[in-house]
Amino acid sequence: MEMVPSEENQFVPKEIQNAAEEPRVLCIIQDTTSAKTVNERLTLNLPVSTTLSKLYEDVAQKAGYVNSTFDLAWGNTPEMAPLDHSSHMSLSDSGFEPGGKKNFLQLTDKDGQQPQVVSDESGTAESSGLDESSQERFIGPLPRDGTPGCSGDYGSPSYSYSSILNKSETGYVGLVNQAMTCYLNSLLQTLFMTPEFRNALYNWEFEESEEDPVTSIPYQLQRLFVLLQTSKKRAIETTDVTRSFGWDSSEAWQQHDVQELCRVMFDALEQKWKQTEQADLINQLYQGKLKDYVRCLECGYESWRIDTYLDIPLVIRPFGASQAYGSVEEALQAFIQPETLDGPNQYFCERCKKKCDARKGLRFLHFPYLLTLQLKRFDFDYTTMHRIKLNDRMTFPEELDMSPFIDVEDEKSPQTESCTDSGAENEGSCHSDQMSNDFSTDDCVDEGICLDSTGSTERALKPKSLLTFELFSVMVHSGSAAGGHYYACIKSFSDGQWYSFNDQHVSKITQDDIRKTYGGSSGSRGYYSSAFASSTNAYMLIYRLKDPSRNAKYLSAEDFPEHIKSLVQKEKESEEQEKRQREIERNTCKIKLFCMHPVKMMMESKLEVHKDKTLREATEMAYKLMELEGVVSLDCCRLVKYDEFHEYLERSYEGEEDTPMGLLLGGVKSSYMFDLLLETRRPEQAFQPYKPGEVMVKVHVVDLKSETIASPISVRAYLNQTITEFKQLIAQATGLSAETMRVVLERCYNDLRLLFVPNKTLKAEGFFRSNKVFVESSESTDHQVAFTDSLLWKLLDRHGNTIRLLVLLPEQSPGTLANRTLCQKQQQQGSSTSTSDSQKSSDASDFEHIESSTQEADSNSSLCVAADNRELENRIRAAAGGSSGASSDPENHFACEERSDSEVNNDRSTSSVDSDILSSSHSSDTLCNADSGPIQLANGLDSHSITSSRRSKAHEGKKETWDTAEEDSGTDSEYDDNGKIKAEAQYLYFRAEPCSQEDTTWDAQKCLVVHVDKRITLAAFKQNLEPYVGVTSTQFKVFRVYANNQEFESVRLNETLSSFSDDNKITIRLGRALKKGEYRVKVYQLLVNEPEPCKFLVDTVFAKGMTVRQSKEELLPQLKEQCKLDLSIDRVRLRKKTWKNPGTVFLDYHVYEEDISISSNWEVFLEVLNEPEKMKSMSQLAVLTRRWSPATMKLGPFQEVILESSSVEELKEKLSEMSDIPLENLEFAKGRGTFPCDISVLEIHQDLDWNPKVSTLNVWPLYICDDGAVVFYRHSTEEPMELSEDERNELMKKESSRLLKTGHRVSYSPRKEKALKIYLDGGPAKDPGQD
User: Fold this and answer.
1) Annotated catalytic, 296?
2) I need a surface site. Which of 273, 451, 683, 915 has the fewest CB within 10 A?
3) In 3D, which of 938, 946, 927 has the Cα closest to residue 602?
4) Is the predicted pLDDT of residue 916 greater than 50, yes or no?
5) Which candidate in 27, 182, 489, 1007 is catalytic?
6) Among this protein's residues, is 182 annotated catalytic?
């Protein structure tokens, strides 16, 4: 078929053959061999019979490459081995998918060499007939996601792994961006391309006996430079270098300023190179000198000092100016331009002994060999109070003449005017405004300042031609002040060619590309308007002095010192080893492996096997991986194709033991659509062959007499078999009679289907890859009744809805259990058991603090399980025997249940998120055997999960909603209107047995394993637990335990356990359960003047219709018993609690649910009063006030003020009366935030809205409409205390500490950048005080 190029540069079929032709394979190839072709795609549509060698020929023809000079690898897994050039294997056999599916491939370099272009005889781009200007060049941030440029995305571009394996066509090696380390890559490439620095680094020899190579910064830089010069990779990692800095992986996500890194790295190198030949290398190459002077304009006296610098910071736009400097030369001239000190800024002249006009400025004394200029593009906008980037245009020359900027005459006699100055004036750091902090160094660092005037003079008197510098590195920043991307444009001193080093990518560029980094816009707005300028511009420039006597060339491999030659050989061997390991990885099949271990049950692992290994060898590897040695012999194991999702054994591999795994698995792939299962057998058994097209059926045999369901037997069948043939197959496997056999298919988790049509096929009945059936064959009459009324259906229904729960019982005091159990039995024998709804227990044991475990120990002991089991078994047998007509039929029980739309499966204490998760949880099938205990079906292949109850008339049409605070009651009553226990007439399956130590981490003596029908209501569940707890269900509470060991009480008695699943944990705690109209309430003490104003006291119960005074009467004895608080009812107040804020004061005559809204898990504040309650009416307002004393910088304690109205005047009068501040001098302000409205004493005087101009409290900006508002007040004439800087700093520290402890924000501050540090000892020192 002829292929023609489409509009998108892709090759597509010219004609589409009819559907009857041979299936075809769609191949999409990405050329990753260079940056110019990485976004190109070639599309081929080939017959499936096409060989791999023919595929290579077609790709070579379409791509224009010479065949056999490139490799093709799978696009999704580039680490795999490339496809075989000479293979005659067809595409279908090689893992290609036909039928319109896309097969992604990558065209990669072969053996480290780029593909040879057909028209290119020499194999280089220069001889291809294209001039250099017509070639596509790369500069700037890489485009991502097909968009031009990446001005909005400054992260490192993503590259395929294969794209960094082989060297760039430029011959230079890139650096991998760890995350946000582009600034580091730019600097490292610049240093590498500096011959003098690289050669000096090579001449330094590492002594392993003196230092750890991992933490040696010079050694890791040396290794990196060797790799940059000799590696065949396209890009190499910098992790070893950053590790030597003492950085961890988090540093890779911190972007820093490249100039800051340069200074810190140079300082670290100087420290490491002390006492070596390279000790003064940084100073020799990068350090210059300047004079900071002040000259009196009256007498000519000059005071000066000499400073050193490593770079010159050049202002882009002067402060307050709208016009930027147009060039580097202009900025340099402004840098040395002196300023006049006059008027209030006059200088005190030591000679004149008075303040005089003076001239202050900087003079360059000496320029370094390598001159670094920093263009200060980052500034601060005082209008918006944000950092900004100045994108204004600033040109810079390729050759920079620095002779106009050096003061030669001053250098001839540098100390002529300083003879009267003290020696101290010649030392220190620069204080110039222009220099700012850019030249300052750590206080303890000696920069080695040289004051040798003779040497300086000689250097200064050099002719102009020797002060010409040539540009060789431009470090470019693209982005904003908030973040961006760095890359470097560097000129090679070998050939004079400019290159763009952009992380992994290295490409040739021209002078035009350099000029594009000037910044600014091409429009007519003017280059001072950086808002419309390009965000990609030069940030650091590095020049080298043009001096033939000093200009060095790069050391070639032949001229390397011996220790570098050894290092090269070492790195080469390491790279070869890495390449071999990568080849092994690319030829390794990695597939998920399962095994039904005889001891450890279902195990899962990953099998990694070379594609050339045979099935026999892979089986032996899997055998060892699954730890079967000594358990099963190798002869009793085999690998089979397996589908974990459907639990389906797809096929076995009989007779293919010597077939390579690569062929069996369809090649090396990143992921497979199937898994492998290591199947085991007993020595006397034989493996069953599994053929493609078969379906697997798990057959569970049901025994109606013993009401048990056996573990599954696996049977394989064909979808076209009839039900009759299927029954014969099951009869052979189980030994049951096919004539009386009933087969029930579980099509989904809640659907049981009786297969009764003899000639219907399995496919028509809904069989799939993996299926689950239940079979029963007996002479009973059960098969004569309707299936949904049969004992078989009820047994299966019960089986599917039974869950296993772990119940932790409370400890009992000795003898209590037997007595209470007996009492409970006597109560059950009565004709009616009732408990008055109005009965209220004030016994201390009726209340319990959930969070406190100490209260459980009051009446606790061990449990006699055997007696309880006998009692429970008697109850179960009585129910099963039909003593109650209602209890023998589960469907009748549902009719007795009362449910409403507002009822839910979860109590209020469970969040909606938890509820959603729990409602979708699965539970494994579990059947309880009355004789031998529960049979837990095997996991993995042998069970399905049940998520909801089976078909039930009672459940049809029902719906569930979430709990709301507006419900009439916090819980449902356990009793109906006649006082009869609702759960008494309902029975669903329940069986409890002692817990073994293997079942739980809890104390087995106090734990029960309960098998229960999850459709049982909480009320019935509690009734069944009574014999084990030893008290009636109204005297204990049920708490559900979640994964993080949090406990939440379940109070919805009419709700079922359908949200529970297997092995959920339940804790039983003693304490009165809620009745209708009752609410669980948490009581907290309000301590307004304590550091922690909110303290939990007790859990209690309030009832609908109860007055506040009645609740206080019931609460006080409980507080005395549990909290040792002996309080008077007239000195106690209850009030609303909203988070930590105190709210409305509840008056004694208020009634819950009438005057006060109440809900489940309600919270209230209890406040102890110093005097009888003054709040008598709802029209009154209780305000918490606090005095601020500016003169002492202190806040007074809280004092409550009771107002009769919302008048501001009344508030001020009360405050004046309380504080003795004259009314006309009293000012107040409302506190902000949550109680206690903490604020720093350094901010309160200015930050609050003092003395608002309002007459009432309930309007803006106060909005004081309820009790509990916080008001600060002060004396208007009191001035704040005068603080020294040290006192202010000390107070600031104290306030920050205080506010952080109380959980209040100190003040807003923007995200601070993490300081850039290089640790000379290999890592940051740990603070012993830190956790």
Assistant:
1) no
2) 683
3) 938
4) no
5) 182
6) yes
